[in-house]
User: Fold this.
Amino acid sequence: MFTGINCSGYVLQWRIATQCDTSADELYVSFYHYPVAPDAGPRPTFTNGTLSATMAANSPGAGEGSGQWSIYSGQGGAFSDINNASATFTGLARTQYILEWVTSTDCQSLSDFMEVGFFNDGPGENVTDIQGNVYSTVWDWPATAGLQKTWPPLP
Assistant:
């Protein structure tokens, strides 16, 4: 029996020698436990005032390590359980977050990132053009742009 050190690999050599010849073979033995490749799940953006989202990351199975959520960027926000792949994340209104899902073993950690945004596309302000026409606006925050106002095109 061969006993090695965790997170290590070994090349074991078997050798047979006689008076006439020598024969050898090698075997690689690994005690390295790789984590499950992380998948943080879909990237939702809410525009209806919602302030929480249920995460949908992959969960390491028994003996495959563990997973943990963290906020990579964005102010405020919290997870119901940072170790649960299906945790609820609650954020602040008008905030875009980048969340990190890390799967780990005692040998290595791997990360996947996802974005989630909490916005409320609602009534904005009125805009008046140079002819005196008044147009209502709607707040809009696309996932790929900054805060902006949009309104119907001028007639």
About this structure: Confidence is low (pLDDT under 50) at residues 141-155. The longest strand covers residues 95-104. The CA atoms of residues 35 and 64 lie 6 Å apart. The domain at 35-142 is CATH 2.60.40.10 (Immunoglobulin-like).
